Structure formats: structure tokens, C-alpha cells
Amino acid sequence: DTGVSQDPRHKITKRGQNVTFRCDPISEHNRLYWYRQTLGQGPEFLTYFQNEAQLEKSRLLSDRFSAERPKGSFSTLEIQRTEQGDSAMYLCASSGRTGPETQYFGPGTRLLVL
Amino acid sequence: AQSVTQPDIHITVSEGASLELRCNYSYGATPYLFWYVQSPGQGLQLLLKYFSGDTLVQGIKGFEAEFKRSQSSFNLRKPSVHWSDAAEYFCAVGVRGGYQKVTFGIGTKLQVIP
Fold it and tell me: Does B101 contact chain A (CB < 8 Å)?
């Protein structure tokens, strides 16, 4: 069990550019979550995958955001036409059970939009 | 919808002193409850969780929490704080049934002074 990994750990971009983040969950986990955490706040739910199916998206996930999990393993989160308000920590979590479950978090990707 | 309140944004304790971090939740039924810790620039690490059964839950690093249904609380405690406990602590509530959509509190930042 190597834990949840995320890449990159830090990203600085200019407003209007597109960025993509990757999350590799714990290998046997079929559930994957993305959260966003802004300064001074707790993480906020963005979206959830069970295997390759995206089953829920938060209203926080505007049309500029898209997430995929093509083979039910790693996931990507893309932000198009970034805005300064997108600056945040993007956290990925995975879990592997139905019913009561524990989500295990990755180290996060810190995004700064200039 | 569920919600979490952490009334203390910032707490300072002396090393060796006892600690209690407060958490109140709002949910129509018995929730799943979690405490996570986050060091600066890092992801979230699970300290402990409550699903059912014994209302006093033991976690890692000497932490414990008690679920009090009558008070809708899940306070985190540690009898003797170490300097390495300085971090931000998040209480979270999960919904029973379906996938685990977790709602986090705003966090309590713990400072430990010598």
C-alpha cells in the first residue's frame, strides 16, 4: 500500500491557461474523490467516481472543470481558462468499501493562478 | 444536508497540557464522524473515526474522541500535547448510505508553545 499520490505537488500558471492534475489512488480502491481547499477553509467536495463512472459533481465544479477516470484507476482533473479564484489546494482521496468507508487522502496539488 | 461546526479557529496550548478540540455536527440521523489532521502544505491524515458501537473512539498519536448524540458533538482530546501535534485539525461528517460524501468543518489550528 503506497498511499494516494498526486502530481504535480505545486503548479503556478498564468490566468487563462489550462492545467491538468493527476491522482493515483490506492491500488485496490474503486472509489475516488476530488476536493478543493482554499486558504483558511476545510476541503469541499468536487466530484466522485466509482470505478470509471463519475457519479456526482458538485455545483462548485463549473463548466471549466472536467474530471476523468478512464480505466477506473488514476484520475485527472483539468481546469480550462484558469482564473485567480481557482487558486487552491486540490486534494484527491480514495476508498475501497461500500457502506461505512474511510477516505484516504493524497498530499494535494497546490495551484497558484497569477 | 449535513454540516460541521468547529467553533475554535485557533487554539494555543503549552506542551504537556491537555487538549480538547470541539466539533458539533448537524445531521438528521446518526452520522459517520471523522477527525483528520493536516500539517502545513500537506494532505489530510486520518486520526480516528466513529461508525457505530462504543462512543469513545481511540485513534493514532494518542488522540481519542467521544460521540455524544444528545449534544451532537464529537470532541477530540489528548491528555498531553507534544510540540509535533501543532497542525490543523478537521472534523468531518459522512452520510450513511450510498457513497461517502464527507463534509468538513473549517478547521482548528493548534499552536503548541514550550
Answer: yes
